[in-house]
Amino acid sequence: MSRIKTRTLCCLGLIIIVRNIWAYQWPVTGDHPVTGTLGEWRNTPIMHLHEGVDIGKGEGTEIYPSAGGFISNSPGDIERYQNEKFIRVENFKYIHIVLDHVLLDTLRNQVGQDYEVTAGVTLLGTVSGNHLHLEESDGALNPLRDRGLDNYTDGADPVVSSIEFYLDFMSDPVRESSYGTVPAGSLFGKLDILSESKDAQSGGGSDTVSVHRMNYKVLNSAGETVLDSGDTLRFDSVAGGNISFVYANFGSRQSNQSLYYYWATNTQTQDRYWNTRLKQGEDWNGAVAAVNSEAAYPDGRYTVHVEAYDIRNNPAVQDQNIIVDNFAPYVKELSVFQNDQSRYNASWEHESGEMNLSPLEGERQTGDIKAGELITIRAEFSEEMEEVTVQVQDSFVPMAPVDGMENRVWEGNCLLNIYSLNT
Ligand SMILES: [Ca+2]
Ligand SMILES: [Ca+2]
Ligand SMILES: [Ca+2]
Predict the structure, then answer these.
(1) Distance CA 188, CA 82 (A)
(2) From the CA of 324, which ligand is nearest?
């Protein structure tokens, strides 16, 4: 027993040590407000995803290495780096700084030699503007992650402020934007979901930074989740990311450094879409359905739910009610009753993969329909109907839904004058 106890304690001790080693200190002392996060829209000098974290400290703030190691600027390029205002220590890059004179002289005198700095001790320089940009592995790592910058906290929630739909044309944002938004009341085909969203940072940081991740869900009218995208956008890294897949950049949906229109349907590296016409059981870019009965999202009412999170998992959600309408409705079954007895019944279904209607086996015509007496007509449709018109002889039969909120089964009564009924 005592041996097992001792080993468990050793393991716990090891875990604590590893955590401390993996976190690294902030490159500035005192408070460290975050004013920019990984993955934000930038156009300086060209459009790209923000590759680091901005720490909002004013001009003259001293900068020390977050982690020790060797300065990895090429020594012969020190003058150039001084002009471009950055220094690289191992895989960390400190940008927008005035290099320290002592450090600069040392580097000039040691051209061709490795120069080692100590975390939190060696003065690298001072902030040249209103913030320090800290980059880790050229944007392949997020410094705000667990075991990144030590004791990073953020209690301010992100927000998702809009959900819009656009027709998707693969890798062609110009064509997407030229069609404008698609009304949520009649969505069809392949769609892109565009969502304005942003995060805020507590501790004196900016209230217009990028969210850390985003996903979308589609819920049917019963509230069941019929599509869960998982994280589409996620800024653990921006290496290899394509900014055109992440942000909208057109007309009234022009993203900028503090306004973010995210394509929630895309990933950083893939232009995707939500195919509202997808066949059941297919991947997102698989085969399409020909009829409602084989569709993953049969025509009807749904709710699209966009979720965004910051890197501390503070959430934001927004719902948008929509109607999906990819298929023309058809009559699945028609019945005629008189005196509570079935007098006529016929039903149809689409032939698999085709749009032809075929009578089902067992179509039958039963009994006589008597003139001069009321008949009840019941029609069941392949999907929810807004309005149904039935004409018998020269008059219209008032029809009303009889299946609650479903609006698929409609009934109406009329008086039959002539001994015949054509359907
Ligand atoms: Ca936040
Ligand atoms: Ca897309
Ligand atoms: Ca329809």
Answers:
(1) 55
(2) 3
Q: What residues contact residue 93 under an 8 Å CB cut-off, 6+ apart? A: 52, 86, 87, 133, 134, 135, 136, 138
Residue 214 lies in a domain: yes
Q: Please write the tens of the pLDDT for every residue from 10-54.
A: 444 454 444 445 799 999 999 999 999 999 999 988 999 999 999
**How many angstroms separate the alpha carbon of residue 347 from the centre of ligand 1?**
56
Domain that holds residue 9: 2-30+57-130
Is residue 141, in this structure, part of any structural domain at all?
no
Tens of pLDDT along 280-317?
Answer: 999 999 999 988 889 999 999 999 999 999 999 999 99
- Its pTM stands at 0.83
**CA 161 – ligand 1 centroid, Å:** 15
For residue 20, the tally of other CB atoms under 10 A from its CB is: 10
pLDDT at 404 over 90: no
Helix, strand, coil percentages in the chain from 3-state DSSP, rounded to 5: 15, 35, 50
| Ligand of minimum distance to the alpha carbon of 165 | 2
347: which strand partners? 333
Q: Return the percentage of the chain with pLDDT > 90, whole number.
A: 64
Compute, in angstroms, the gap from residue 261 CA to the centroid of ligand 2.
13
Residue with tokens 């992100």, as numbered in its chain: 158
Q: How far is the CA of 241 from the centre of ligand 2 (A)?
A: 14
**Which residues have C-beta under 5 Å from ligand 3, the single-atom ion?**
299, 325, 327
Residue 78 dihedral angles phi and psi, to the nearest 5°: -55, -40
What CATH number corresponds to the domain at position 312?
A: 2.70.50
Judged by DSSP in three states, 20 sits in helix
Q: How far is the CA of 20 from the centre of ligand 1 (A)?
A: 24
In a domain, 381, yes or no: yes
Spacing, Cα 24 to ligand 1 middle (Å) = 21
Query: Of the bound ligands, which one is closest to the alpha carbon of residue 188?
Result: 3
Centre of ligand 2 from the C-alpha of residue 107, in Å: 49
What's the pLDDT tens digit per position in 190-224? Answer: 999 999 999 999 999 999 999 999 999 999 999 99
312 plus 261 within the same structural domain: yes
Structure tokens at 374: 């009321």
- 272 CA distance to ligand 2 centroid (A)? 4
